[in-house]
Design brief:
Heterodimer of a large and a small subunit. Keywords: 3Fe-4S, 4Fe-4S, Iron, Iron-sulfur, Metal-binding, Oxidoreductase, Signal. It is an enzyme of class 1 (oxidoreductase). InterPro entries: Cytochrome-c3_hydrogenase_C (IPR027394), NADH_UbQ_OxRdtase-like_20kDa (IPR006137), NiFe-Hase_small_C_sf (IPR037148), NiFe_Hase_small_N_sf (IPR037024), NiFe_hydrogenase_ssu (IPR001821). Belongs to the [NiFe]/[NiFeSe] hydrogenase small subunit family. This protein is α/β, with parallel strands linked by helices. 27% of the residues lie in helices and 9% in strands. The chain is built from eleven helices and ten strands. The strands form four sheets. Strands 1-2-4-8 form a four-stranded parallel β-sheet, sandwiched between helices. It has a two-stranded antiparallel sheet with strand order 3-5. It has a two-stranded antiparallel sheet with strand order 6-7. The chain is elongated, with a radius of gyration of 22 Å. 44% of the residues are buried. The structure holds iron/sulfur cluster (2 copies). One iron/sulfur cluster (SF4) binds next to helix 1 and helix 6.
Length: 326
Amino acid sequence: MIWLQSGGCGGCTLSLLNAEQPNVLLALEDMDIDIVWHPTLSEASLDEVSACLEQLLTGEAPVDILCLEGSVMTGAAGSYHRLPNGQSMASMITQLANLADYVVAVGTCAAYGGITASGDNLTGAVGLMFEGSQLGGALGGAFVSKSGLPVINISGCPTHPDWVLDTFALIAANKLTHQDLDPLGRPRFYADRLVHHGCDKNEFYEFKASAEAPGQMGCLMEFVGCKGTQAHADCNIRPWNGNGSCLTGGYPCINCTSPDFADPGHAFFETPKVAGFPVGLPTDMPKAWFVALSTLSKSATPNRVKANATKDRITVAPSLPESKKK
Ligand code: SF4
Ligand code: SF4
């Protein structure tokens, strides 16, 4: 496996280094995956890396898995990111991708452009096979690697370490098929879930008891911009760092696995509304039903839930049944 970094922050590698049970090196060893080069994990000198890339490009050594972290910067003929020999990183990525059995985009930048492509995108940052949610990108929308699969988009900003390692495990076992990827190329083992699933604020969501600021206990959808009901990921089922998620930390889900998350058109911590109701409702729920149900829920909210929603800890405990009171 060779891992390249281009237009990104390196955060997906930092996240991968948080893999536990086992750690990343043991996990790769168990899968029989050798790291030919990784900018953080390898000790090779520049000369050694150049020689290694040459071996891959000439076919002397196989490219089983090519991972890219960060976007491909195509602006100014790739001159924003050049290798020491003057070649653009964009052309190196393309050459290696055409030789690889599997091409893996690690993180939303590599998959869709991500944060690097947000705003005016002066560097021409794109994903490997997508530009935002549109097929295209550096390799073109019809790209397939030698295994017959398109780019595997482990989106997330950053990605969860398990999403990367579980994908590698499927590849190493020759078990990853087209059916295991969703229409945006994301592995379905995590992308068929919603962040809303398993969120510890679900009781507040049920009663539309809302937080008014980050860090409060209530549901963050109504005022604080949470997109967990639309975000494809299993963050609240598969904890991060062994314990938690953005939501358990009191922050709203910003839908970082989605192609266009970095340009939402509003502040991340704000909920855009029309006639008092959030614009971004759950994708599979009719709006009229949501409005009716949320109005009913609000009128039935227990005082305990209402009181706790705007606090940073439990201030009203659940009441005991009359028979248990002394
Ligand atoms: S996806 Fe996010 S964490 Fe990963 S490289 Fe891009 S900006 Fe950094
Ligand atoms: S905070 Fe977000 S993810 Fe959690 S229950 Fe509310 S809408 Fe769902």
